[in-house]
Amino acid sequence: MRNFILLIRTIITGLFTGVAFALPLGPAGLESIKRTVNSGINEGLMVAIGAVLADAFDILFINIGLFSLLNQNKRTEGLFFIICGLLILFFAFQDIKNYNGDRDENIKKYDSKPVLKGFIIAFTNPMTHSFWLTISGTLIHRFSDMKPIYYYIFLIFIIVGMFIWFVFLNLAALKGIQRLENNKNNEIVEKLTIVIMFLIGIGFIVFGLYNLINLKRVIK
Length: 220
Prior knowledge:
mainly alpha; 220 residues; single chain
């Protein structure tokens, strides 16, 4: 009975941790919603699957200690933010081209792979790795002291919780679009997501540059 209660607690803690992490709407969430609005919920969920796969890789890298090394190197962290910001700006520019009907053939092939796009957007987001590093020192560390089975169940249900939130988010977006169903409203949603992506990209670049400048001052 005690083991059963511990199992239920592990599952619930994992689910709520995953949902809590996925609540803030980041670049991957925005891309997922945009796909749902423009191409249907299946496309949006494929982006979500890519984002969740990126989180699975984060778990793997944390367990082998890779991200702790990244966190200790502020120069690498700053460069990572800049690269991520540039990548997000690139995606936003491609969305503008798509909106205007001017698309490169190679971009069409790439954009037809929503899982890959979701993975890249999530994996290159420094905030994602910061989250995993934070909980690795608290919740994950706590569960790692238990039996391995509970530890792995906890990690799996974090991922499940994140995907559940993505499903809810996309269903909510779909319902909202259906209620406001006309081309003008769809255009407003698409433009808004592009603008937000631009702002996030610029924010990451500025933060990365700020980190590098501060590092140079400390060295001097």
